[in-house]
């Protein structure tokens, strides 16, 4: 069952990553083919992230109230609907609006997935199995990159390629939703809301060789004596150490997005600004994107060997260095090499912090805390085009990555100052009463 969870969660996350990086593909194509520019271009790049911000902030908390499984299904239905409508957009404004609405649904995917995986995966394999789920998701980046090469400048049965890419995202989300219907609810969540019989039944589905005498209710954090549905999240999150951890993650997410999404969404535009045509830029970007699944796989052993806190900090440093080199080296081969290293390091970083952030809050507020703080990364990502594109246009790629370096330094400092150690510890040890 754990393997099925990894696949079902990973494929759902595939379409969040697909949606994020589709913004870069669509914007690059529409900029050249339809002379989209100025405010319209920035709004197109920002609309999905703004929707994800609101979706992550408002919908993630549903998983603490109605359950992880129901939240999963609602998110995918909403995303699929608006992604399909977006494929029939008749104006830039309609496309921006549908991208925003699709972002609402997909925005809660990662926070709910983080909470669910943390709830159901065993301590000894929590980091490794979660990293496999995230690896499934990041296959979306090179897949989208190479599909874009074949579709963005062409039509399929007379339909512009960028519209086809939106339909693919919608249909794929429906398929994943059907797969997820077979997942059990989180036993920890069920126990927390007082549904003990259902928790035991769900727990048996996760047991390799269950026997009634040995199956016990999942452990709960000492303070979780109030059913989840009646717990006030802000009261729980307002006590130490969760207050400090919430503040740390808020600062972290505001600034980490400059590095991760700054590269992912603007890489093609950076290459265009350096004089490469659209097709060449998309080719180099697609080759660079191969690093995303490679880095995600690399994170699997690293999560077992090293402390999560220090892995987050080290991967940020490597991401900053490789990103700056990508923006400055003149040789084509080196552009692709450092682009690959940037994306590989990005996903070591991403996998580690997704595991880490879900471990540092108790079950009854886990999805709420992760969703609220993670939503800030979507808000700052929505602002990125308005901050970084003017710097790119006026001062060049090196200056733009200089801004990114400053943001990543702040993200690193926040984790170094407040972040607890979590590797090889029970969730109850990490999250005291």
UniProtKB/TrEMBL annotation:
Record's bilayer topology term: Multi-pass membrane protein
GO terms, molecular function: carboxylic acid transmembrane transporter activity
Keywords, comma-separated and alphabetical: Membrane, Transmembrane, Transmembrane helix
Signal peptide span: none
Keyword field contains Membrane: yes
Region ranges (Disordered): 210-230
CDD domains xrefs: MFS_SV2_like
All residue ranges annotated as the Major facilitator superfamily (MFS) profile domain in the record: 5-423
Compartment(s): Cell membrane
Pfam families: Sugar_tr (PF00083)
Gene3D superfamilies recorded: MFS general substrate transporter like domains
InterPro entries linked: MFS_dom (IPR020846), MFS_sugar_transport-like (IPR005828), MFS_trans_sf (IPR036259)
Primary location class: membrane
Transmembrane spans: 43-63, 72-90, 129-149, 246-270, 282-303, 310-327, 333-356, 368-389, 395-418
GO CC annotation: plasma membrane
Protein name: MFS transporter
